[in-house]
Amino acid sequence: MSKVFLFAATEFEILPSIEHLEKNFQKKSFFEYTQGELSIYPIITGVGSMLTSLAMSRTKNLHEADLIINVGVAGSYNTNLNLGDVVEVVEDRFADLGVEEADGSFTDVFEMDLMNPNQFPFEKGIIKNESQTNYQRVSAITVNKVHGTTKSIERIKAKYQPEIESMEGAAFFYTAKIMDIKCLQIRAISNYVEPRNKDNWDLKIAIDSLNAALINIMH
Q1: Would you kindly state where each structural domain of the chain is located, as residue ranges?
Q2: What average pLDDT does the segment 67-78 reach?
Q3: Is the pLDDT of residue 196 over 90?
Q4: Taking the model in full, what pTM does it have?
Q5: How does residue 105 score in pLDDT terms, banded at 50, 70 and 90?
Q6: What stretches of 1-48 adopt beta strand conformation (E)?
Q7: Is the CB of residue 42 less than 8 Å from the CB of residue 14?
Q8: Considering Cα of 209, then 212, then 216, then 219, what sign does the dihedral take?
Q9: Is residue 171 a contact partner of residue 127, using CB atoms and an 8 Å limit?
Protein backbone atom coordinates (compact mmCIF):
# COMPACT_ATOMS: atom_id res chain seq x y z
CA MET A 1 0.00 0.00 0.00
CA SER A 2 1.27 3.47 -0.90
CA LYS A 3 1.08 6.18 1.74
CA VAL A 4 1.03 9.83 0.66
CA PHE A 5 0.96 12.70 3.15
CA LEU A 6 -0.26 16.13 2.02
CA PHE A 7 0.94 19.19 3.92
CA ALA A 8 -0.73 22.57 3.42
CA ALA A 9 -0.51 25.71 5.51
CA THR A 10 -4.25 26.41 5.42
CA GLU A 11 -7.34 24.32 4.79
CA PHE A 12 -8.80 26.61 2.14
CA GLU A 13 -5.78 25.97 -0.12
CA ILE A 14 -6.63 22.26 -0.41
CA LEU A 15 -10.35 22.25 0.40
CA PRO A 16 -11.37 21.04 -3.10
CA SER A 17 -8.97 18.10 -2.72
CA ILE A 18 -10.36 17.24 0.69
CA GLU A 19 -13.88 17.35 -0.76
CA HIS A 20 -12.69 15.03 -3.54
CA LEU A 21 -11.30 12.61 -0.97
CA GLU A 22 -14.55 12.72 1.00
CA LYS A 23 -16.54 11.77 -2.11
CA ASN A 24 -14.24 9.27 -3.76
CA PHE A 25 -12.16 7.66 -1.01
CA GLN A 26 -13.05 5.69 2.08
CA LYS A 27 -12.50 7.71 5.24
CA LYS A 28 -10.78 5.47 7.73
CA SER A 29 -9.99 8.07 10.37
CA PHE A 30 -9.97 11.82 10.95
CA PHE A 31 -7.17 12.31 8.44
CA GLU A 32 -6.78 9.02 6.54
CA TYR A 33 -8.50 8.30 3.22
CA THR A 34 -8.02 5.08 1.28
CA GLN A 35 -8.76 3.89 -2.23
CA GLY A 36 -7.45 0.47 -3.15
CA GLU A 37 -3.76 0.34 -2.29
CA LEU A 38 -3.47 4.11 -1.83
CA SER A 39 -3.76 5.95 1.48
CA ILE A 40 -3.87 9.77 1.57
CA TYR A 41 -3.27 11.79 4.73
CA PRO A 42 -4.08 15.54 4.42
CA ILE A 43 -2.53 17.62 7.19
CA ILE A 44 -2.98 21.35 7.87
CA THR A 45 0.21 22.69 9.43
CA GLY A 46 -0.52 26.36 10.01
CA VAL A 47 1.32 29.20 8.31
CA GLY A 48 5.08 29.55 8.26
CA SER A 49 8.29 27.57 8.59
CA MET A 50 8.12 26.88 12.30
CA LEU A 51 4.60 25.45 12.25
CA THR A 52 5.34 23.42 9.12
CA SER A 53 8.42 21.76 10.61
CA LEU A 54 6.66 21.16 13.92
CA ALA A 55 3.64 19.57 12.26
CA MET A 56 5.84 17.30 10.15
CA SER A 57 7.98 16.21 13.08
CA ARG A 58 4.87 15.38 15.13
CA THR A 59 3.05 13.49 12.38
CA LYS A 60 2.62 9.89 13.45
CA ASN A 61 4.19 7.30 11.14
CA LEU A 62 5.49 9.91 8.70
CA HIS A 63 8.62 7.78 8.33
CA GLU A 64 6.41 5.18 6.63
CA ALA A 65 5.39 7.61 3.87
CA ASP A 66 6.17 6.74 0.27
CA LEU A 67 5.80 10.41 -0.66
CA ILE A 68 5.06 13.66 1.13
CA ILE A 69 3.74 16.67 -0.78
CA ASN A 70 3.74 20.32 0.18
CA VAL A 71 1.04 22.27 -1.66
CA GLY A 72 -0.09 25.87 -1.58
CA VAL A 73 -0.29 29.16 -3.40
CA ALA A 74 2.71 31.38 -4.03
CA GLY A 75 3.71 34.81 -5.22
CA SER A 76 5.75 35.01 -8.43
CA TYR A 77 8.73 37.19 -9.31
CA ASN A 78 8.67 35.69 -12.80
CA THR A 79 6.20 37.64 -14.94
CA ASN A 80 6.37 34.91 -17.59
CA LEU A 81 4.30 32.81 -15.21
CA ASN A 82 0.56 33.42 -15.36
CA LEU A 83 -1.77 33.62 -12.41
CA GLY A 84 -3.08 30.10 -11.89
CA ASP A 85 0.01 28.40 -13.32
CA VAL A 86 1.06 25.29 -11.40
CA VAL A 87 4.79 24.89 -10.81
CA GLU A 88 7.08 22.38 -9.15
CA VAL A 89 9.70 23.81 -6.81
CA VAL A 90 13.06 22.13 -7.35
CA GLU A 91 15.19 24.63 -5.41
CA ASP A 92 14.30 26.50 -2.24
CA ARG A 93 16.13 28.53 0.37
CA PHE A 94 15.54 30.53 3.52
CA ALA A 95 15.70 34.17 2.44
CA ASP A 96 15.29 36.10 5.69
CA LEU A 97 17.37 34.12 8.19
CA GLY A 98 20.19 36.49 9.06
CA VAL A 99 20.75 40.14 9.84
CA GLU A 100 19.80 43.48 8.35
CA GLU A 101 22.88 45.65 7.94
CA ALA A 102 23.07 49.36 8.74
CA ASP A 103 22.70 50.22 5.05
CA GLY A 104 19.53 48.14 4.80
CA SER A 105 21.16 45.22 2.99
CA PHE A 106 20.66 41.64 4.16
CA THR A 107 23.35 39.17 5.19
CA ASP A 108 22.22 35.59 5.61
CA VAL A 109 23.46 33.05 8.14
CA PHE A 110 25.70 31.36 5.60
CA GLU A 111 27.44 34.63 4.75
CA MET A 112 27.84 35.24 8.48
CA ASP A 113 29.61 31.86 8.83
CA LEU A 114 27.01 30.73 11.35
CA MET A 115 26.03 27.79 9.14
CA ASN A 116 27.91 25.77 6.55
CA PRO A 117 26.26 26.47 3.16
CA ASN A 118 27.19 22.97 1.97
CA GLN A 119 26.16 20.97 5.01
CA PHE A 120 23.39 18.51 4.16
CA PRO A 121 20.77 19.20 2.93
CA PHE A 122 22.15 22.51 1.65
CA GLU A 123 24.17 23.11 -1.51
CA LYS A 124 25.54 26.65 -1.49
CA GLY A 125 22.69 27.55 0.87
CA ILE A 126 20.05 26.00 -1.39
CA ILE A 127 17.96 22.88 -0.80
CA LYS A 128 17.45 21.03 -4.07
CA ASN A 129 14.87 18.39 -4.91
CA GLU A 130 14.69 16.10 -7.91
CA SER A 131 11.83 16.88 -10.27
CA GLN A 132 8.97 14.37 -10.26
CA THR A 133 6.29 15.99 -12.44
CA ASN A 134 5.87 17.64 -15.83
CA TYR A 135 5.01 21.01 -14.31
CA GLN A 136 7.36 23.92 -14.88
CA ARG A 137 10.33 23.74 -12.54
CA VAL A 138 11.11 26.84 -10.52
CA SER A 139 13.44 28.14 -7.84
CA ALA A 140 11.88 29.54 -4.69
CA ILE A 141 12.64 31.47 -1.55
CA THR A 142 10.94 30.99 1.80
CA VAL A 143 10.24 33.97 4.03
CA ASN A 144 8.50 34.80 7.27
CA LYS A 145 7.51 38.21 5.93
CA VAL A 146 6.41 38.35 2.29
CA HIS A 147 7.89 41.19 0.29
CA GLY A 148 5.62 44.15 -0.35
CA THR A 149 7.69 47.25 -1.13
CA THR A 150 9.62 48.14 -4.26
CA LYS A 151 12.89 48.49 -2.36
CA SER A 152 12.68 45.14 -0.55
CA ILE A 153 11.56 43.37 -3.72
CA GLU A 154 14.44 44.72 -5.78
CA ARG A 155 16.95 43.80 -3.06
CA ILE A 156 15.76 40.20 -2.77
CA LYS A 157 15.65 39.80 -6.56
CA ALA A 158 19.21 41.06 -6.85
CA LYS A 159 20.45 38.80 -4.07
CA TYR A 160 18.75 35.48 -4.84
CA GLN A 161 17.07 35.77 -8.27
CA PRO A 162 14.00 33.82 -7.09
CA GLU A 163 11.10 32.88 -9.33
CA ILE A 164 8.52 32.45 -6.56
CA GLU A 165 8.21 32.86 -2.80
CA SER A 166 6.27 31.07 -0.09
CA MET A 167 6.28 30.94 3.68
CA GLU A 168 6.81 27.18 4.12
CA GLY A 169 8.67 25.55 1.23
CA ALA A 170 12.27 25.50 2.44
CA ALA A 171 11.18 24.30 5.89
CA PHE A 172 9.25 21.47 4.26
CA PHE A 173 12.24 20.47 2.13
CA TYR A 174 14.63 20.74 5.07
CA THR A 175 12.52 18.54 7.33
CA ALA A 176 11.86 15.98 4.60
CA LYS A 177 15.54 15.73 3.71
CA ILE A 178 16.63 15.38 7.33
CA MET A 179 14.00 12.67 7.83
CA ASP A 180 15.05 11.01 4.55
CA ILE A 181 11.55 10.98 3.04
CA LYS A 182 10.77 11.41 -0.66
CA CYS A 183 9.15 14.79 -1.14
CA LEU A 184 7.49 17.05 -3.69
CA GLN A 185 6.52 20.72 -3.56
CA ILE A 186 3.73 21.98 -5.82
CA ARG A 187 2.60 25.61 -5.92
CA ALA A 188 0.06 27.62 -7.91
CA ILE A 189 0.64 31.30 -8.65
CA SER A 190 -1.89 33.54 -6.91
CA ASN A 191 -0.16 36.88 -7.38
CA TYR A 192 2.95 38.67 -8.54
CA VAL A 193 5.42 39.91 -5.96
CA GLU A 194 4.93 43.66 -6.22
CA PRO A 195 4.08 46.55 -3.90
CA ARG A 196 1.31 44.88 -1.92
CA ASN A 197 -2.10 45.13 -3.61
CA LYS A 198 -4.48 42.24 -2.99
CA ASP A 199 -6.84 43.57 -5.66
CA ASN A 200 -4.39 42.12 -8.19
CA TRP A 201 -4.47 38.63 -6.66
CA ASP A 202 -6.50 35.75 -8.05
CA LEU A 203 -6.74 33.18 -5.30
CA LYS A 204 -9.65 31.38 -6.93
CA ILE A 205 -7.85 30.51 -10.12
CA ALA A 206 -4.74 29.53 -8.16
CA ILE A 207 -6.63 27.24 -5.79
CA ASP A 208 -8.67 25.71 -8.62
CA SER A 209 -5.51 24.97 -10.62
CA LEU A 210 -3.61 23.74 -7.58
CA ASN A 211 -6.28 21.26 -6.60
CA ALA A 212 -6.83 20.01 -10.13
CA ALA A 213 -3.12 19.22 -10.22
CA LEU A 214 -3.15 17.64 -6.78
CA ILE A 215 -6.15 15.42 -7.58
CA ASN A 216 -4.38 14.33 -10.76
CA ILE A 217 -1.24 13.47 -8.77
CA MET A 218 -3.26 11.49 -6.24
CA HIS A 219 -4.56 9.25 -9.02
Answers
A1: 2-218
A2: 97
A3: no
A4: 0.94
A5: confident
A6: 2-8, 26-29, 32-35, 38-44
A7: yes
A8: positive
A9: no
